[in-house]
Design brief:
- The chain folds into three domains: 162 residues, Periplasmic binding protein-like II (D-Maltodextrin-Binding Protein, domain 2, 3-Layer(aba) Sandwich); 176 residues, Dipeptide-binding Protein, domain 1; 227 residues, Dipeptide-binding Protein, domain 3 (Roll), CATH 3.10.105.10.
- The radius of gyration is 24 Å and the shape is globular.
- The longest helix is centred in the C-terminal third of the chain and has 18 residues.
- The chain is of the alpha+beta class and 581 residues long.
Length: 581
């Protein structure tokens, strides 16, 4: 399995158990388009966790992003295949010689989805004023905004405007560095050259939505989405299904002149058990399965080997190393994890190789380096993390005042429900390792995902399981989790970024220098140095770097895998001939 997942692997797999089932979905039978693509069909995909919020400034988990990425758009977007930045609602841009001023030229005639928030129910045209409104919102202090960290210190006037909204007296004109030149031209000024600003603008917080929607729905924008994307919300029944229908007025066309998107709809269901999800896929009731139950991996790989010998009912398996890290977090402001030696002892007491090999069945790579996963151009292996060393762990715990674990308080490891069996199994293995190697008692508490996030973000958890999937493809996105300036003064004030409350002047100085460095190679080296500082401090406990595994029905076309599991259904279509086999 480790060899299989070393890189992107796309193979046809014959599962004799997947005999097509009772598939009533329409697969591109409605209309043939130029370029040998088809219109029609509903792409059905399942998520094992519920979403928390669909409001762009409060999207803090991947399920919500996978849904809303089909509904909202920004100035730029990511290419689904290689994650490069490409134009979206801005058809082009100019960057000043000092790399501090970005001028965006918007497409004309782009319309928001029809919605009752508009006086006549018809979506109006998007202008630069809408982007000004939404990007100013990123810099406002209100509970539903978790994204100020994106513009903090970087965008001219962002900090001042945020402070003014905290005081209840917003500065007239909003953020100074976000300026409307005319209806179709927007200028953004930065405080310093910031090499990845275009990548940052692909973030969900930078999507555009109308002021009318926020005025009408307020906090209920969490389930009332009004965007410009290829799909619009048809129906939301939380915990059961979300249905997105084709936007008939979508602005984009493909290279043959065909109106996008090709699909009629995308439907998300929320089956909590992966076995049941896989069964639905085998029946033909889902187009995709993301990740597999651990107990099914060997079976699927075995069936893959059989498929190489021939088979006539294939589906596609895609495997790619992921831009994600799964880790256990420590609350640095509270005992016992205020003590670096305690955190280091925990890190040395864990056998990550064993966890990946046996618990995860080879799915993933041991987290023996830093918080940044292996990354193109980034020397992740140059960061020395923690390998299994139980004797060193015992010594460090004794130095912290707990010889052989004596006097160490019983602690709770908080994990979330959902995510398959591996969350619980990994937690149980780590619980056992900490007992065997440090004589520490750990109790496992399983919470619903939203409650889990709320508790550790508000400083009410000591030790918890979490993960980070890249928002945009750059090491900075991971290291931002440890930036000291993201730590609020009040322990119980919500901290979406840096919930650990980790603060290191050395880390911050290197990280800030990297932010201001234009040369990518130099910047990546500075990030590596900051990563090393954090690991020396045992800021977190990396467990493994993940891999993304997909199963797709064979008739699904134009849906490439990528390291962020960034999903864009704009150009996905179903192949009629494949479906009829």
């Amino acid at each position: 399995m480790r060899k299989l997942v070393a890189g992107i692997t796309i193979v046809a797999v014959a599962l004799l158990a997947a005999c097509g089932g009772n598939n009533n979905n329409k697969h591109g039978n409605d209309k043939k388009a130029k370029g040998n693509v088809n219109y029609g069909g509903v792409f059905r995909v399942n998520e094992v966790s519920d979403f928390r919020s669909l409001y762009p400034l409060n999207i803090t988990e991947v399920v919500a992003h996978r849904i809303t990425n089909q509904v909202y758009e920004g100035l730029v977007k990511l290419n689904q295949e290689d994650l490069s930045v490409e134009p979206c609602l801005a058809e082009r841009w100019e960057i000043s010689d000092d790399a501090k001023t970005f001028t965006f030229f918007l497409r004309k005639g782009i319309k928001f989805h029809d919605n009752k928030c508009f006086p006549d129910g018809k979506g109006r045209e998007v202008t630069a004023h809408d982007f000004k409104y939404c990007l100013d919102k990123v810099c406002e202090a209100f509970p539903e905004n978790q994204m100020f960290w994106l513009f903090k210190d970087k965008v001219k006037g962002a900090n001042e405007y945020y402070a003014s909204t905290q005081n209840g007296k917003p500065l007239e004109g909003g953020v100074e560095g976000i300026q409307v030149i005319d209806d179709y031209t927007l200028k953004i000024e930065l405080n310093y050259p910031y090499a990845i600003f275009l990548k940052l603008l692909s973030h969900s917080a930078c999507w555009v939505y109308p002021k009318e929607a926020f005025d009408t729905y307020g906090v209920e924008m969490r389930v009332n989405c009004v965007g410009t994307g290829p799909f619009r919300v048809k129906n939301i029944k939380e915990g059961e299904a979300v249905v997105l229908e084709r936007n008939p007025e979508y602005w984009d066309v493909d290279e043959f002149g065909n109106q996008l998107p090709y699909l009629d709809a995308v439907k998300y269901t929320f089956i909590k058990e992966k076995k049941a999800e896989l069964l639905e896929f085998r029946k033909g009731n889902l187009e995709m399965v993301f990740r597999l139950p651990l107990e099914m991996i060997k079976d699927v790989v075995g069936e893959l080997e059989d498929a190489k010998k021939g088979g006539n009912i294939p589906f596609v398996m895609q495997v790619v190393p992921a831009m994600s890290v799964f880790y256990y977090g420590f609350q640095h402001k509270l005992d016992p994890f205020k003590d670096k030696n305690v955190r280091r002892a925990f890190n040395y007491a864990i056998d990550r190789e064993k966890i990946v090999t046996y618990t995860l069945q080879g799915e993933g790579r041991p987290g023996i380096h830093g918080i940044v996963p292996p990354f193109k151009g980034y020397d992740a292996e140059g960061v020395k993390g923690y390998t299994f060393d139980p004797e060193m762990a015992k010594e460090l715990l004794a130095e912290a005042g707990y010889p052989n674990g004596e006097g160490f308080p019983k602690i709770t490891l908080q994990i979330n429900s959902g995510g398959g069996d591996r969350n619980v199994q990994t937690a149980e293995v780590i619980q056992k390792m900490l007992k065997e190697n440090l004589n520490i008692d750990v109790e496992i508490e399983i919470l619903q995902f939203a409650q889990h996030l709320e508790k550790y973000e508000t400083g009410k958890a000591l030790f918890w399981r979490a993960g980070w999937v890249a928002d945009y493809p750059d090491p900075e996105n991971f290291l931002n989790l440890l930036y000291g300036k993201n730590v609020p003064e009040d322990l119980h004030e919500k901290a979406y970024m840096n919930p650990f409350r980790y603060q290191s002047a050395k880390f911050d100085s290197i990280f800030e220098l990297a932010l201001r460095t234009i040369d990518e190679q130099e910047r990546y080296e500075l990030f590596r140095q900051a990563d090393q500082v954090a690991m020396d401090d045992a800021a977190i406990m990396p467990i493994f770097y993940d891999e993304n595994t997909r199963l797709l029905q064979v008739y699904v076309k134009n849906f490439p895998a990528n390291a962020m599991e960034y999903r864009d259904f704009t150009r996905v279509f179903f192949d009629k001939e494949e479906n009829e086999n």
